[in-house]
Amino acid sequence: MFWTIMFIFIFQRLIELTVAKRNEKNAKKRGAVEFGKRHYPFIVAMHALFFVSLISEVAVFHRNIQPFPALILMISALVLTQGLRYWSLFSLGIYWNTKILVIPETNLIRKGPYKWIKHPNYLAVALELILLPLLFQAYVTAVVFTICNAVLLLIRIREEERALKELCH
């Protein structure tokens, strides 16, 4: 089960990077301005190292999947988190990207989960980074990457808010 779940999540990330690259080309043709170039490599590294850490912790310390009642709860939470994540991505459509790319004079997206939450995708990713390791009792990975993600999100959200305030309606 571990390798199946790892494959699913890593495959998702690779597809998302492909979509992000396509959306980036489209956005730049429309005059997008990129913000947060300095912190972006740290975000990419953190996500890659998250999977390395999770796989290593499970393999080296022989971590097991949660026992049955907790297993159902954790998988249910991950499925709901995936729902929020993809609802967020589809709501942004061609504007979604892993980078902060803002097309000047566009309107902010206020549909889907963006009606109620400013950064629903970041919430979903934060939940993934804690739930996925907890599913396999990889507590060190859960704690370390939750902290790393929180620090990077503080920087990223501040930068994204500044970009949107400067360039969007």
From TrEMBL:
An annotated Gene Ontology molecular function: protein C-terminal S-isoprenylcysteine carboxyl O-methyltransferase activity
Places the protein is found: Membrane
CC terms in the record's Gene Ontology section: membrane
TM segment ranges: 39-61, 68-87, 130-155
Pfam families membership: ICMT
Record membrane topology: Multi-pass membrane protein
Keywords in alphabetical order: Membrane, Transmembrane, Transmembrane helix
Primary localisation category: membrane
Protein name: Isoprenylcysteine carboxyl methyltransferase
Species classification: Bacteria, Bacillati, Bacillota, Bacilli, Bacillales
